[in-house]
Amino acid sequence: MRHRRGGFTLIELLVVIAIIAILIGLLLPAVQKVRSAAARIQCSNNLKQIGIALHAHEGTYGYFPTSGAQSAAFGNTGVGFETMGWMYQILPFIEQDNVYKIGQQSGPNNWNASIGKAMVEIQIKTYLCPARGNRASAPASWGSVYAMGDYAGVMVEWGNQWQATLPPDPNEPNTFKGIITKGGHVRTDNPSLTQKYATVNVTGVTDGTSNTIAIMEKAVSAKQYQPTATPDWDWWEIPGWAHNSDWPNMRLVGNWVPLLPDNDTTRVSWATANGKMWEPGFGSAHTGVVLAVFGDGSVRGIQMSVNTGGNAGWSDASCVLYHLGGRSDGWVVSSNF
């Protein structure tokens, strides 16, 4: 008697494959949602650590960290104040004291024998949003690979004075009306004209630390997660987290600059002549929200759709973010944002 061999017919196999495909199709979005939620939680935790560090710095030195000096003064020492930015200044308070000491010993850009690289090439996990990955620059022609940061201090006005051979921009008192202020202005051509600026402590935030944003996730186009130093220098990102009072770690809040998701295509109209995206403001890889640490150390989500406009796109009483960025403009902003 002939026994029929067990097995699947072609139709049965196709049905099984179809069921598996349907299950995978249903599962993938759920997995992606879990990953996105986990990335947002980790990003929030990073900002919480930064918020604690801001207050630890204020408790230790009597003032919040500053944005350092202007860009052309990067790495200058012995001027009476720290010229590197707030991310460098809080390193001892996020368990990165060894990196802080390397900066003190070798400077930010100089090769250090103990680590085989410069300080600006060291990635600091606390400064990276996991939704964007472990960001670093493309290798420069001189070999450096700069480590990026995904968070920036708040400026409320436009500031573009970076030279070290000119007096400071007269608009700087308006530019740095937030919690993270400029530490001073270095004159490399005439050191006697170097100016150290006043610092800000908790009592100086008269609008209330719980009502004032100190740090937010900064805008980064998904196309520029790996910025380039050569042939074109990406001014918005490089040299990364260790930089001072310039766009890599200070950004413009509210005013005429909207919050932007990383995948926003409207940046095309903001592209520069070399094709890079113009990134003066804040944004996020998280759907619909930008995370921010306030002066009291709390972390809250700012809706991407929050009103950032004003008359003809400029700041006025209707610009929520603009007033959340200022430490002492007297505006009471609703917490429903």
TrEMBL record:
<feature type="domain" description="DUF1559">
    <location>
        <begin position="32"/>
        <end position="307"/>
    </location>
</feature>
<dbReference type="Pfam" id="PF07963">
    <property type="entry name" value="N_methyl"/>
</dbReference>
<protein>
    <recommendedName>
        <fullName>DUF1559 domain-containing protein</fullName>
    </recommendedName>
</protein>
<dbReference type="InterPro" id="IPR012902">
    <property type="entry name" value="N_methyl_site"/>
</dbReference>
<dbReference type="InterPro" id="IPR011453">
    <property type="entry name" value="DUF1559"/>
</dbReference>
<dbReference type="InterPro" id="IPR027558">
    <property type="entry name" value="Pre_pil_HX9DG_C"/>
</dbReference>
<dbReference type="InterPro" id="IPR045584">
    <property type="entry name" value="Pilin-like"/>
</dbReference>
<dbReference type="Pfam" id="PF07596">
    <property type="entry name" value="SBP_bac_10"/>
</dbReference>
